[in-house]
Amino acid sequence: MIREAIVTTRSLEGEPHIAPMGATVIEGGYLLQPFRPSRTLDNLARTRIAVVNFTDDVRIFASCVVGRRLNVDVRKATYIDCPRLADALSHDEITVERVEDDPQRPKFFCKTYHSEGHTRFEGMNRAKAAVLEAAVLVSRLNMLPDEKVDQEMAYLAIAVEKTAGPEELEAWGWMLEAVAQHRSRRAS
């Protein structure tokens, strides 16, 4: 099972980094597979710690994918020297146990060191799931044909139109802008 999460890491100098990532659940922890090149990969390789943050604020996922600056507060994790999202619903502090190198996506096998809940989960919202799926599409615009993107975005728009609140609408707008900008750059 893959859980969509926000993974926070830090550089050796202590600079926090926030990235959306699918964290594969494995016995005792997670398998993380960041793409090369990435700061998440560099930070994991150097510090061998991270935090898997669970949030329902899809703006964080969307802003990372489109490169939009969003004010996201972080604080020190409970036991490891790594940042976590201040407003996460819950978080898991993890340590890298083993690495399998790969030219495209190295595999970081991580053990859960500590898990902590922070706030009550208020339930599912289809628009949140739609924005998350749109963020995955946007992250792969260079790999997918326009027709596929258009078809998926049209289907996802149904959930957004029916169930979105202000945060989901804002993030959905960023996804639409990203698709339009990608096509505009490509046409130039």
Overall geometry: globular
Q: Please provide the count of β strands.
A: 8
β-sheet strand percentage: 25-35%
So how many helices? Answer: 5
CA gyration radius, whole angstroms: 17 Å
Helix content: 25-40%
The parts where pLDDT drops under 50 for at least 5 residues are: none
Q: Kindly state the mean pLDDT as a whole number?
A: 96
Major sheet: 6 strands, antiparallel, barrel
Strand numbers in spatial order across the main sheet:
1-2-3-8-7-4
> What is the helix/strand order?
EEEHEHEEEEHHH
**Structural class label:** alpha+beta
Termini, distance in Å? 40 Å
Pfam families: DUF447_C, DUF447_N
Protein name: DUF447 family protein
Domain DUF447: 4-116, 125-177
InterPro entries: DUF447_C (IPR049288), DUF447_N (IPR007386), Split_barrel_FMN-bd (IPR012349)
